[in-house]
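Box S1 | Example of a co-folding query
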Amino acid sequence: MFDIQHYYKAESIAQAVEMLAAHPGSRLVAGGTDVLVKLRHFDDKFTRLVDIHALPELKKIAAQDGKLFLGSGLTFAETMACEAVTQYIPVLAEACATVAGPQIRNMGTIGGNIANGAVSADTAAALLVLEPMLVIQGREGVRRAAMEGFHTGPGQVALAADEVLLGFEFDLAGLKGLGAAYYKYAMRSAMDIATIGCAAGVKMEGGRIADLRLAFTVAAPTPLRCRRAEAASLNQPLNDAAVAKIIAALEEDVQPRTSWRATREFRMRIIKTLAGRMIAAAAEGAKRGN
Amino acid sequence: MVKLKLHVNGRDYELDVDPRESLLTVLRDRLGLIGVKKSCGVGECGACTVLLNGVPTDSCLTLAVWAEGQCVRTVEGVARPEGELSPVQRAYVEAGAVQCGFCTPGLVMTTTAFLEQNKDRLASVTREEIKRAHAGHLCRCTGYEMITEAVELALGREVKGAAECLEISK
Ligand SMILES: Cc1cc2nc3c(=O)[nH]c(=O)nc-3n(C[C@@H](O)[C@@H](O)[C@H](O)COP(=O)(O)OP(=O)(O)OC[C@H]3O[C@@H](n4cnc5c(N)ncnc54)[C@H](O)[C@@H]3O)c2cc1C
Ligand code: FES
Ligand code: FES
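Box S1 (continued) | Returned holo structure for flavin-adenine dinucleotide
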């Protein structure tokens, strides 16, 4: 038996927002792969739950007017199977495919992966590169927030206690020409948390880098975009010297730390190695058209 | 208490369940389906895997109320009514993929779903795909090689190790 003290089942998003507001201290549960594990570990911050599991409203997929909207309640497996994802933003499917194993991918949601705020969330680096707007429902209405800056600290995101993340809105027009790639460095190729995760997005123009987006997980207290490294890339040709310059600037962006999984020095080495490889992979993707 | 309608292994059930209950405990303690194993309780090992509308799911991290109206399949629903093993179960036995057997019911469910999903392309399924599809299961005994072979056997392929294993067991 889970130590749930209050359980409220929301039949709609509007009802979920009302319930969160009416019951201070209550938290949403979607796929439950973080929340129920926390309850097993007797985390008393999750004993009052508002249940939005499998709410149809949160599984919406809509492509129109150059935008793609993905509902927060889509599981990793549903996201990987979504044609619009594999066609327009395949890097998100790649990232989902690295999460845990098949059962967890059938259960955990992409919205929960971000709302949970974990620094190791596999979708976080890919989403930082894809720059969707997060669509958030509160009592006053809907607001939009950028992906960058949404993670405010370890396990923390900029969501009020009575807000529901509805989903992610991708600007497909803006993503045209962007090649992207994600790599998760972990000790095992399944059922393991990233030691370092790296996503890169590259747009080339006339043989030069017109747009570099470089994002890491587990390289700082929150998932992050590497703005110094990106600035160093502007208008550079894609060659070894330019990549070396980008990687040198990258050291200022990240603050890896030592944990039982890996030392700071080892993490730094993976960060630099992956940066080079993912920039190359993203540039390849840009050539192919994704 | 919440009313819960479940369709389990071809039978309909109507139960009053506590919303704090996992699907795992409802299946084991209320319906007596003790083929569903509990080990880690936190989604790491796959011993508790059941099929929810055909999809492999860790029942330990699933609230029972989430299964409302769904088809649940456990290892008890895999064998034929007279107790004859399913082709997947037979493959596990023949490949020597069962030692202590604690991981087996979950694995059999994943393999059953895997075959169903790939039924139109059995011949082109790769070993890598087999491994990826079964990566959500821990086995402390077999070293996984025989499990991969069991899946290959279930796919209708010839497996050298399995033949040897049958020899020994004769
Ligand atoms: C065995 C195991 C292995 C794992 N491996 C990985 C891995 O390799 N990589 C990885 O990235 N993750 C991994 N995870 C974690 C991953 O499954 C979760 O982060 C998942 O994505 C969370 O989604 P959920 O729907 O299960 O969220 P829940 O557990 O239901 O919720 C998580 C948090 O998000 C909040 N929340 C959920 N939905 C919303 C919403 N719509 N609006 C606002 N807040 C919301 C909840 O209140 C809660 O705080 C693993 C988990 C397990 C159990
Ligand atoms: S008991 Fe459910 S995954 Fe281990
Ligand atoms: S046979 Fe013992 S755990 Fe797999």
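Residues A 27-35, 37, 72, 99-100, 104, 108-109, 111-113, 115-116, 118, 120-122, 159, 164-165, 193; B 42-44 surround flavin-adenine dinucleotide (ligand 1) (CB under 6 Å). Residues 86 and 143 of chain B are 23 Å apart (CA to CA).
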